[in-house]
Amino acid sequence: MMRFLRSLLLHPLAAQAVAWQTAEESEVRQHLARNEYTLVAFVVPELKESKALLPEWKTIHRSDVETVAVSCTATPDLCQAFDVVSFPTIRLYRRERPMIRYRGARKAASIISFVDRTIRPVITSLNNDTVASFSSIDDIVFIANLREEDESALGLFSRLAEEHRDRYSFGKMTTAEGQSQVHCYNNIEGSPHNTASLDRVSPLEELVSTCTEPLFRNINRHSFMGPFTKWAFLLYYLSDDKAERAAFRESMRPIAKMFNETIKFLTVNSGKYAYLLPDMGIPNDKGLAACNPDTGEAYPYQGEIGPDNVSRFLKSVIDNEVKPWDKNSFVPTPVQKVDVYDEYDEYDEYDEYDEYDEHDEHDEL
């Protein structure tokens, strides 16, 4: 990594003016020693991923959290000392406590929510007056209604909260009667979920998986391989127009909820993943097709794309009233295959970044 960072100093792009306002090593260390909370973005200003973060980063302002940007081009030794190997990397440093890595979408609203939930207690104590407002405080909220002296359930819930506190918010109430339960509120999809089985960890893990699964997945290089095997069918909407894909998700939301247990709805940038079109039996640059993930059989949809029409089409696919596409029935327009790993993909509100997602290994430029 050091060789990569130092090579950027000699690269023509590095000579261009960049808009990132970054701190020197001494300033960074002063911030970390002085402030209770310091939100740090480690960037390589010349890279497009760091450039994409810049307008979002500029809008992040909190009176109780200092924001600092570090250029790993200008201060490679500092980034190596902090074990930063991907760019951009975002971390919240807490004085005299371990730092917390940010793993969400690189959008200001998501980053601010991450800071909010990190500053709050791992589990917020609630009562009848506060539980309603807390249930909508974040995109995903878990609230445990625990029977008094149920230490086992509290222990399981506490471990769950510690593991996921950077992504979701957690609260608890106590009750003198009934069984301990955990409720999950997915405020993105408007879908509540709950479990009453708190005698072991697996029901809680299943609750997390179920509650946080979005109705739609945007196919990118992180989500390309699924996992999608739990659904009987996958419904692909392919278009090279981002606005069209967003409009499809909005119009099909009620249908996606209706078929949520059976069919996974996926949106795909057909300009980037054009080679999927002939696999789905779609002759043009956009279209809709259902696919059986077990057999690979495709069911291309022909007709006007609207909620009622798509609903009827999906019911006919489930009921085996539609035959799978015969690959010999026509020859689609040839398309150029694009390497799914060679471009920066768009992310939706559910996508997560690990620090090692971008530029894990570098060659000299």
Order of helices and strands: HHEHEHEEHEHEHEEEHEEHEHEEH
Oligomer: single chain
CATH topology of the largest domain: Glutaredoxin
| Count of individual helical segments | 11
- The portion of residues assigned to helices is 25-40%
CATH superfamily of the largest domain: Glutaredoxin
Derived from helix and strand composition plus strand pairing, the structural class reads alpha/beta
The N- and C-terminal alpha carbons lie at a distance of: 12 Å
Biggest sheet descriptor: 5 strands, mixed
Q: Gyration radius, to the nearest Å?
A: 24 Å
Biggest sheet strand line-up:
5-7-6-8-9
Number of strands: 14
CATH architectural type of the largest domain? 3-Layer(aba) Sandwich
What percent strand?
A: 15-25%
Reading off the top of the CATH hierarchy, the class of the largest domain is best stated as: Alpha Beta
Mean pLDDT: 85
Number of domains: 3
The global form is: flat
Low-pLDDT segments: 9-18, 331-350, 356-365
Keywords: Endoplasmic reticulum, Isomerase, Redox-active center, Signal
Pfam families: Thioredoxin (PF00085)
EC number: 5.3.4.1
Protein name: Protein disulfide-isomerase
